[in-house]
Amino acid sequence: ETGVTQTPRHLVMGMTNKKSLKCEQHLGHNAMYWYKQSAKKPLELMFVYNFKEQTENNSVPSRFSPECPNSSHLFLHLHTLQPEDSALYLCASSQDLAGSTYEQYFGPGTRLTVT
Amino acid sequence: KNQVEQSPQSLIILEGKNCTLQCNYTVSPFSNLRWYKQDTGRGPVSLTIMTFSENTKSNGRYTATLDADTKQSSLHITASQLSDSASYICVVSGDRGSTLGRLYFGRGTQLTVWP
After folding, report:
1. pLDDT tens-digit profile of A76-90?
2. Contacts of residue A88 in chain B, CB cutoff 8 Å?
3. Residue A70 φ/ψ, nearest 5 degrees
4. Residue A4: its chain B contacts at CB < 8 A?
């Protein structure tokens, strides 16, 4: 266990559905991240939050909407997704922003399938 | 263009054998390089982090090397075990500035260890 939990672990949704992914970290970290991992592609950073404030948005489509109510919780709200959005969505946290030597701890991921 | 290239893309070895995975990068200026292990369906777990001044770092049977002059790194696995079967991801951190621009991910090497 890395101290970062994600729910649900698996999610199947239609293109007209609205769902949310949840991430919680029990490490007392200040920075949290959403990543997308598609088959045969490198991890793609989607959003970064530091002290609850969004510091980065990697040109992610608006059908993905992040929310960070406090430093321990991070949500990814999903609506009107496309089949190409099917992927493993990973949450991570670090003591400070990960460009330094601070370690990133990843959750187990949510396997999302859009039908 | 800042890139991270890993080779081979996939590798099959017999249990008990050694292997070496390669990572070449063009990220500049360079801050640090990390190796992660990702089991199927799980989030990545950090193996090592190396800064510019470090040439080698070990974590049990895993030994990472770094040549910052040639911008190359390797991950050597000694006496492989079945549990070493996973994807190994090289991540390079660039200079301070945008967090987004500071982390560059390789596609990973898929290692399979056969009994």
Report:
1. 999 999 999 999 999
2. 41
3. -160, 175
4. 43
> Residues with Cβ < 8 Å from A64, sequence gap 6 or more?
A46, A76, A77, A78, A85
| Amino acid at the residue B49 | I
Q: Is A80 helix (H, G, I), strand (E, B) or coil?
A: coil
CA distance B68 to chain A (A): 16
Q: Are A91 and A34 in contact (CB under 8 A)?
A: yes
8 Å CB contact between B81 and B50: no
Q: What is the pLDDT of residue B10?
A: 96
- The phi, psi pair for A54, rounded to 5°, reads -75, 125
Grade residue B63 by pLDDT with cuts at 50, 70 and 90.
Answer: very high
- Using the Cβ of B81 and the Cβ atoms of chain A, whether some distance falls under 8 Å is answered with no
Is B29 an interface residue toward A (CB < 8 Å)? no
Extract the residue ranges of chain A whose pLDDT is less than 50: none
